[in-house]
């Protein structure tokens, strides 16, 4: 067992005696070490050998989010706090107290990253409903509706959808509600698919894809010449739907992915679940959506609280 506080004291003494750090720098290190030790205690981690990279990622997320008794930290401050936590783990590994430095691959939160553009739920519905689906709908309309429903219904990257084959969605038409996506680096993940997206895909397979297919491509989404729908064509279809819906925001496939994540968090999903659904390798990538949600809550509070 490696007691976090004992190792921390040994490390701080090492920094003071062996490294000769200034009193001011040591004070800053001690503050961040105490913050980390308090978080470990709250998480029930009394043995440093039980700490995983996932724990450290959660620590960063909690620093950025804040709590009732601990204010949220800016990305730069959370990054510095992570550097100190990583320093403790690195020291423990160098001293032979820890066998693996689990902190080595944990990245600090990005600084200065702009918040992603999102659509409200009403705007998403407005966007999708702008594409005809009735008897007057063309095969292109039906395909574009399926594209929009899948983008928002699964949070997929546009490249993940344009890479789907017909066989990949065969189960949806038979009542399955799970889709397997291949993301960055070939990593696969499963995502649930809602009724409206399944209905749109089934409609496309029956009414539209046969009009495009010429037997040369097994891709799910086809262009009018029977080839695989390109990312550029998908972007154009989304922009056309936004213009038709009267949405003045810049709308792209990633806008729907951002909206998907934000609406899940606003609906009560936890950040770890959203991380898995988006296919992020690190939860620190997903945490930007918690900032969007926090801004939304702050706006509501300003409007509703009598002393805001």
Give structural notes.
Belongs to the 'phage' integrase family. XerC subfamily. The chain has 2 domains: 4-94, DNA polymerase, domain 1 (Orthogonal Bundle); 121-298, Orthogonal Bundle (hpI Integrase, Chain A), CATH 1.10.443. The chain is elongated, with a radius of gyration of 24 Å. The mean pLDDT is 87. It contains 15 helices and 2 strands. Helix 1 (4-17) runs antiparallel to helix 2 (23-42). The chain has 308 residues and is mainly α. A two-stranded antiparallel sheet has the order 1-2. Helices cover 57% and strands 3% of the residues.
Structural class: mainly alpha
- Mean pLDDT value: 87
Q: State the CATH architecture of the largest domain.
A: Orthogonal Bundle
**Cα distance spanning the termini:** 48 Å
- CATH domain fold name of the largest domain: hpI Integrase, Chain A
Q: What percentage of the residues does DSSP assign to strands (E)? A: under 5%
Strand-and-helix sequence, N→C? HHHHHHHHEEHHHHHHH
């Amino acid at each position: 067992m490696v007691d976090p506080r004992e190792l921390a004291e040994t490390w701080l003494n090492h920094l003071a005696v062996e490294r000769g750090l200034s009193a001011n720098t040591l004070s800053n290190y001690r503050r961040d070490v105490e913050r980390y030790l308090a978080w470990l205690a709250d998480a029930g981690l009394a043995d440093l050998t039980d700490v995983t990279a996932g724990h450290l990622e959660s620590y960063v997320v909690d620093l950025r989010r804040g709590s009732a008794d601990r204010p949220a930290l800016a990305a730069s401050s959370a990054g510095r706090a992570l550097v100190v936590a990583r320093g403790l783990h690195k020291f423990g590994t160098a001293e032979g107290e820890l066998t693996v430095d689990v902190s080595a691959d944990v990245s600090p939160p990005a600084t200065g990253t702009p918040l992603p553009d999102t659509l409200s739920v009403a705007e998403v519905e407005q966007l999708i409903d702008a594409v005809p689906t009735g008897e007057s709908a063309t095969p292109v309309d039906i395909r574009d509706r399926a594209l929009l429903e899948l983008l928002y219904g699964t949070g997929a990257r546009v490249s993940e959808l344009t890479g789907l084959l017909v066989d990949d969605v065969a189960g949806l038409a038979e009542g399955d509600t799970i889709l397997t996506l291949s993301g960055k680096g070939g990593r696969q993940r499963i995502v649930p698919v809602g009724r409206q997206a399944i209905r749109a895909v089934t409609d496309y397979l029956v009414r539209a894809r046969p009009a495009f297919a010429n037997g040369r491509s097994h891709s799910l989404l086809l262009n009018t010449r029977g080839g695989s729908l390109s990312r550029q064509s998908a972007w154009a279809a989304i922009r056309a739907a936004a213009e038709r819906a009267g949405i003045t925001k810049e709308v792209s496939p990633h806008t729907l992915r951002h909206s998907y994540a934000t609406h899940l968090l606003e609906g009560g999903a936890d950040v770890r679940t959203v991380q898995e659904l988006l296919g992020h390798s690190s939860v620190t990538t997903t945490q930007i959506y918690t900032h969007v949600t926090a801004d939304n809550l702050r706006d509501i509070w300003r409007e509703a609280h009598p002393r805001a």
